[in-house]
Amino acid sequence: xxxxxxxxxxxxxxxxxxxxxxxxxxxxxxxxxxxxxxxxxxxxxxxxxxxxxxxxxxxxxxxxxxxxxxxxxxxxxxxxxxxxxxxxxxxxxxxxxxxxxxxxxxxxxxxxxxxxxxxxxxxxxxxxxxxxxxxxxxxxxxxxxxxxxxxxxxxxxxxxxxxxxxxxxxxxxxxxx
Length: 177
Description:
This protein has about 180 residues and is α/β, with parallel strands linked by helices. It contains 3 helices and 6 strands.
């Protein structure tokens, strides 16, 4: 059925607008699944960005904590750090300080007294504390990167910074595994 020419001419813009409107509505309806997928992707991206931001904040806080602990270790080494730990199996080797580690006096075999500062040759320090049942262990572990201080503290006690010299006097104690 063909519309009369006069009617087509007068209503042609309305007819075109109606067809365009229906086409836009059809496109919008057809794109709904894509829109949902895009919203899900945006949500995932937002979640990842939040996780990355949180991780960066934790790293910044860790860096601040490490810097504060380095100052503590620097102060301990600057004070002379009177006890360096050596290996129980081989007193010519230095031992590493670890939280909760047991340290004994090599002469008596007794645990070191609570409150004593212990150090190693790698810049790590700790304080001996009562950890229960009459045992003492290393707590408040701090590490410095200032190896000049470490060497000075070792030389103050006549310890060769290159290797444990097995001195039993007041300068060395053995770490117990």
